[in-house]
Each structure stands twice: as structure tokens, then as C-alpha cells.
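queue> holo job accepted (nicotinamide-adenine-dinucleotide)
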Amino acid sequence: MSKRYQQFINNEWVDAQSGEWFDSLDPFSGEAWAQVPLSNEQDVDCAVQAAAAAMDGPWGKMSATDRGMLIHKLGTLIDANANELAEVESMDNGKLKSEVAGQVRYTAKYFYYYGGLADKIQGAVIPIDKPKVFNYTRYEPVGVVGTITPWNSSLLLTAWKVAPALAAGNTIVAKPSEHTPVSLLVLARLFVEAGFPPGVFNVVTGFGKGCGEAIVTHPLVKVVAFTGGDEGGRKVNELAAKHLKRVTLELGGKSPNIVFDDADLARAANGVITGIFSAGGQTCMAGSRLLLQESIHDEFVERLIDITSKAKLGDPKLSDVQVGPVATKPQFDKVVSYVDIGKSEATCAFGGNVRTGPGFGAGQFVEPTIFTGVTNDMRIAQEEVFGPVLAVLKFKDEDDALRIANDIRFGLASGVWTRSLHRAMYMSERLKAGTVWVNNYRSTSFTTPFGGYKDSGLGREGGIEAVKEFLEVKSVWISTDLDMPDPFVRKY
Ligand code: NAD
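queue> job finished
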């Protein structure tokens, strides 16, 4: 019997206006475990109206310090309820419960950081180039922010948007992925417990077409913060442009992880595995293209196979399991099709099979897979798989590595493994990616920006940069001139 959850609008729990529901599936068992309302344009309109009204209510009138304290309190509640949040999110996305629990606890820290930042958003007195005038800037909230997020890390990726948007004084209409709707509804309950006024945070549950697009096109939504795939991101950008609306887009990646011959190879091997096989490769920042310097290629691939062959696949709720199922059936089909493409283009050095049978639930499992003999023109080297599939390429020297690494339409992240400071600096300056990790991979933090070059996105999340995405800046001119101005001639 699956559990029913309602939408959250204006601090109230409501059904969809259509009265329709849809199932949320457990990727391990393949069975429906929860039902949520099928939100449409009318539900989005109610949520946006509530969010717009909240801008003029107690929230809009609250001091930035009090706002920050509320945001901080929400963080403490997320931490205190981390087990429940992790349980529902892992039921929805099939990721290891242990990993999701850590991620949820870390999510709390985004609210601590941005809570602290709320009353430090300040304008400046501008040394203006004219006499007898005082000019200053003030930052103001944009108003209603729409957040649209994917299924891989629902809470964390929503927090990346919601925490800075709230710190800036805005209100939110959040739409989680149709595959993972439940954790944001549990989060909504914590907003009430923290004492947020009605309308500040609203959650609608629906699909991209009927619900997501309604958020993007609603005239009262001023900024849309989107994370997801290339196709959805482009559509959101087109719709937003028609309405002259600002967007942040965090899209896909095909990130190079570059290992030089002078690296600590044991550490690098573990880092490469973390980069591609943790979370089953279902992460935008996956290091899915491994670039190996020629002289260490064979030895390094052996190391990877040795580690990967010991990985335990299975039920993500079990504590000793290291690789869970692919999160959705369409994604499973996509990963399997890319494994077939890889087999036709390159050499499958490890894995390449689907796992079924006892211990593998509904069988949505793909083995961690390593392709060697990959060249940069192959589809397996250029296209995002979003699964546990690693493409291994060879390079000669720094410039050859840079040529291969940058010859792609994505630019989300990159990794460099070397003991040479010169090499690390040389590569970091020239890689066309929003993040460069040197001798580590997949580190993120609320304190520093994250986002993509090229087709990987627009705007930044994390750090002070993220708050600026949700602010308007106003320039105020105050004349201190007592002389009578000429009514027709403007002085420059
Ligand atoms: P998706 O684009 O299918 O869906 C993401 C969200 O967008 C969902 O909530 C969906 O309902 C909504 N959506 C889809 N079409 C829409 C439309 N036309 N208008 C409005 N909303 C729409 O992506 P997904 O399959 O859920 O997630 C996987 C993708 O997300 C991968 O490509 C991955 O690289 C990307 N991703 C990026 C980051 C990052 O930070 N750059 C992080 C995680 C995932």
C-alpha cells in the first residue's frame, strides 16, 4: 500500500486541483511506494500567487537578521530530521542510504551558511564622478523564484537554490523531479516547524510539461533556477527568454579526469573511482572521461579493474552495498544503450553487463563499466551517459591533455592528478570548466561557486555568487545641490 503525500501551498497541504495523482517508484523493487498530486497550471498559479503575496506579508517586512535566523533554524531541523529525509529520498532515487544521509546532513550547512549571509548583503557608496550628488546601491530581492530540480540529488540541489534565494529575501515555488517528489514535501513540513510565514516556500509536484513550464512562463516568477538535462535546460531558457526572465541553468557534463605519470597513482585510482562510480555515475559532475598519460595507461587501468571488481552491487538500503540501481527505468535503458554503443566503438575492459536475479530487485542494475581504446571523436567520449560508465583515453603531455579535455561541448568540471605544482597550475588555468579539482574529485561546498562553462550551464550556485543570481541592484541618486538646475540642458 503506497503512502499519499499532498502538495504544499501557502503552508497548507492540498490535493491537485484536477484531483489526479501519480506514483513514485522505488528503483530497487520497481514498485510504487508513494503517491503525489499531479499538479498542473492551476496549482502552479495558486503557489505563485501565495509566494507573491508573501513578499508583501511578514516575510517581506522581516529584518534580514531575523530572516537569517529562520533560515539557520531550518538548517538545524534538516539536520535533526536527516534520517527521515534520507530514507524518503533514497526510496525515490535508489542511491545508497548511507550516502544520502551524509548528503542531507551536509544540506543543512547550506542553510547555516546562507542564513549567516542574509544580513551581510550590502550595497556600496559609489564615488560618483559628479559634484553635489550622493549615490549608493541597494540590493533588493527579485520576488518569486521558481526552482526546478532533477532526480539524482533532490534535496541538495534544491538547497543550492532555495537557501541563497531566501537569504536574498525572496519566496519560492519548488518543483522536484516527477521521479523523486517526496523529500521536498518532507522538507516543506520543516519550514512550518521552523516558523516560516505562509507562502514563503511552496512545493508543487508534477511533470516538466504541465507543471515545470507553467512555473517558467508565469509572469510573477522572476527568476527560474533549473538543474537538469540539456534538452529541458534549453527549453526552459527559450521559454524564459520569451518572457525576458532570468535563469540559472546547471546542466550536464562529460568531465575529464586527467592523471599524469607523476601522480600518486594509488590515491588517483581511488579518486577516479569516486568520480565515476559513486552514486552509480548519476551525477552531473561525474568524471566520465579518464585521460591517462601513455606511460601509465596499462598499469592504471589494472588498478581500476582491481578496485572495481570488488564493488558490491545491491539493495541501496544495505550498509555494505557500494553501487545501487539506476534510478529510473528510462535512465536504465539509456545507460544500457550507451554500454552497447561503447562496445561497438571501443574495448570493454571491465563490466558491461546488466545484473539481475536474487539481490538485484527489479534488475535495474548496470555493472560499473570501463571502456579502453577510446578516442575523442567517439560518442562514448563526447555524450553524457549519467551512469557507471568510464571512457579511458590516452594523452602524451600537458598540451595534448588540454586539447582532448577541452574539445567537447560541455565544461562543468575537471580533475588533475599530479605531484607537480607547475603542472597543476598550468592545467587549472587552461581547462575550460567551472571547477578544477587537483588531487581530489567531486568536492563541493556552500562556500564556493559551482557551475558550468559552455553547454554545461549559465550562472553559479554556492558561495556569495549564488545570492547575486536572486537580487536586483538599484542605483540611488540624491542631489545635495541647492543651485537651480537648467530645465533644458543636462550637465555631464
Ligand atoms: P530533466 O531535464 O529531465 O529534468 C529535470 C527537471 O526539469 C525535472 O524536474 C523535470 O520535470 C523538469 N523539466 C523537464 N522538462 C521541462 C520543461 N520543458 N520545462 C520545465 N521543467 C522541465 O533531467 P533529469 O533526467 O531529471 O536529470 C538528469 C540531468 O540533470 C543530467 O543531464 C545531469 O547532468 C543534470 N544534472 C546537472 C547538475 C548540475 O549541477 N549541473 C546536477 C545534477 C544533474
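queue> Residues 354 and 366 are 5 Å apart (CA to CA).
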